[in-house]
Design goal:
This protein is an alpha+beta fold. Helix content is about 40%, strand content about 20%. It has helices at about 25-35, 40-55, 60-65, 80-95, 135-145; strands at about 10-15, 25, 70-75, 100-105, 110-115, 120. Strands 1, 2, 3, 4, 5 and 6 form a six-stranded antiparallel β-sheet that branches. The longest helix is centred in the middle third of the chain and has 17 residues, at about 40-55. It is globular. The mean pLDDT is about 90.
């Protein structure tokens, strides 16, 4: 499957948010960087300008405004303009060595909000942590693949 085959895209950092137990979304990651005072003024102004564009053009789901345990996903079918406008934000994260991840899926979870550009899915606020696979089992798996 290529990324074009997926219906939804989420851009996130690596730190978890307490109420969702999911990785912080890209706007929140960049806002955190801005609030840290580490951004140069020109970069801070760029982020504020881009963030204002998104506030004007991307509806704020009520669940996000209420800080419900939800996460947002872009719809890949018609978010071309949104993705184009988010690229400079990703450039800012790269400039300041802030890791981010592009997550593609067709099964985002229970959808509680939807508009033209995005969906919002419910989370259970529970993070399941599992042990790493047993090394011997991995070796057996690799041998069986040959």
């Amino acid at each position: 499957m290529t990324k074009l085959d997926y219906k939804y895209l989420r851009i996130q950092g690596k730190n978890l948010v307490r109420n969702t137990m999911y990785a912080r979304g890209v706007f929140s990651v960049c806002m955190q960087l801005l609030e840290s005072g580490k951004m140069e003024q020109e970069d801070a102004d760029l982020f504020k300008e881009l963030n204002n564009w998104f506030l004007d053009n991307l509806p704020l789901p009520p669940q996000c405004n209420n800080q419900d345990p939800v996460i947002c996903w872009f719809k890949t079918e018609n978010s071309e303009e949104m993705i184009k406008m988010i690229r400079p934000i990703l450039w800012l994260l790269e400039k300041y060595d802030i890791p981010y991840f592009l997550v593609h899926t067709n099964t985002p979870g229970e959808i509680v909000y939807e508009d033209k550009y995005q969906i919002v899915t419910k989370t259970d606020g529970y993070l399941q942590i599992e042990d790493a696979p047993d090394k011997k089992k991995l070796e057996l798996y690799d041998q069986n693949r040959e």
